[in-house]
Design goal:
The chain has 260 residues and is of the alpha+beta class. The chain has three domains: 72 residues, GMP Synthetase, Chain A, domain 3, CATH 3.30.300; 92 residues, no CATH class; 51 residues, no CATH class. It contains nine helices and twelve strands. It has a four-stranded mixed beta sheet. The two termini are 15 Å apart.
Amino acid sequence: MIEKVNPSHPDKVADRIAGAIVDLAYKAKDNPKIAVEVLVGHGVCHVIIETDALIGNDEIARVIRRIVGNLIVDVVSVPQDVHLNDNQKGDIRCGDNGIFKGMPLTLEQMVLSGIAREIYKDYPFDGKYILNGEELIICQSNANSEDLKNTYPEAVVNPLGDWTGGTNVDTGATNRKLGSDMADSVTGGGLHGKDLSKADVSVNIYAFLKAQQTGKPVELFCAIGDETVDGKPYKDIVEIARNYIDSVGGFEKFAEWGLF
């Protein structure tokens, strides 16, 4: 059983905004430290940022409006805590405590991911999808339900009828759809709105990729300041995650669909 939401779901819009701001931080300096939280809905986008990168509020407002349209932008940006900043002086070390789990994807999870992407090509609007064995549920806004039923005759489509979604109907918040992003690999840490020093980003990506490569579950933990994780220098974990983020086009693109 798995649920997938598309990039126009309000929670994914919030993730995409957070990712776009992290991209700005990486353009501003090498190896920035940043954490971003986003709440968006009903014509307003609230953003709280902790960072050591110099990013202008005008830049932030532009990327928000590019993603979600013309709305009121409220930004609070503060420096990163001095103790957290000191943790990263010198060698690259683990930026947070956490437990992490990588799980091989199931066929069911991969199938639903493919269905979600196919629907999104034709309907790039708020939508969510569930697959439980052979039972498929499609809730897709701004779509003709009958057309979708013709394409997916086995599915339950829009049980309450045609609907209009998006951030004018619902609110979105960062890291609220981790099941959609990580499948069975979900633990406590969120993927989005953070730089690569944060274990929630780098160790989650590393554990997930290792699980796909080995076909076996991966369970890891780390403490802030650790220089090794899973027997590897933490800087190597960061580089694996950096290469993955680069391969998908950056943090904003990564936020669209998550890890699968």
